[in-house]
Amino acid sequence: MDRFVVISGCSGGGKSTLLTELEGRGYCVVEEPGRRIVRAETQSNGTALPWIDLSAFLRRAIEMAIADRTSVQSSEDWVFFDRGLIDAAVGLEEVTGEPILATLGHTYRYHSRVFLAPPWPEIYVQDPERRHGMNSAMAEYSRLLNAYPSIGYDVSILPKVGVVERADFVLTMLGACRSD
Question: Which InterPro entries does the UniProt record give (predicted)?
Fold first, then answer.
């Protein structure tokens, strides 16, 4: 979908902060499936958690990302996704070897321009939903940096600047700046 924009990249690279800024400017934002799954599984004592059953977690993230796309289908403006389907497919392919990225990546398209947050150790923090360290986050970033172009996306690396400037960068790249 030409109006569905993915913000992806390195864990702890400022994606959620950027998406909060975009939401504050009136855009529709879809929260990262992984964080929602971790909260739900933790509350229900479930096991589809990245540190218990990564494969189950990633399968659930794929299902949720597909449902997310359906839930915002009627939006006529930009919709910004905090990660989503491609990220989960890349992870599942890495963990299981199942060749699903190409199929899912071509069936469920997003805007051709994807924005990746680069590793930013100065702002990286672990929390109850993000238990992995910076090395794992950087390895994931590297996989995503290769995967998105491999299925036809143009990648723009987000600059390491303040959140207002980052949001302006995204909107400028999309040609969608709103005047307030």
Answer: NadR/Ttd14_AAA_dom, P-loop_NTPase
Task: Work out the number of other CB atoms within 10 angstroms of the CB of residue 104.
Answer: 19
55 class by beta-carbon count within 10 Å (0-12 exposed, 13-18 middle, 19+ buried): middle
**Mean pLDDT score, 142-171:** 94
pLDDT of residue 51 exceeding 90, the answer is: no
Please give the full DSSP string across 113-124, using - where no structure is assigned. Answer: EEEEEPP-TTT-
How many whole angstroms separate alpha carbon 100 and alpha carbon 36?
23
Q: In terms of DSSP bridges, do strands 79-82 and 28-30 run parallel, antiparallel, or are they unpaired?
A: parallel
Residues 33, 101, 23: CA angle, nearest 5 degrees:
30
Q: Is the pLDDT of residue 180 over 50?
A: no
pTM (predicted TM-score):
0.87
Tens-digit pLDDT profile for residues 88-146: 999 999 999 999 998 898 899 999 999 999 876 555 455 555 555 667 777 888 899 99
Kindly list the structural domains of the chain, giving each domain's residue range(s) and its CATH number in brackets, ordered by start.
Answer: 4-174 (3.40.50.300)
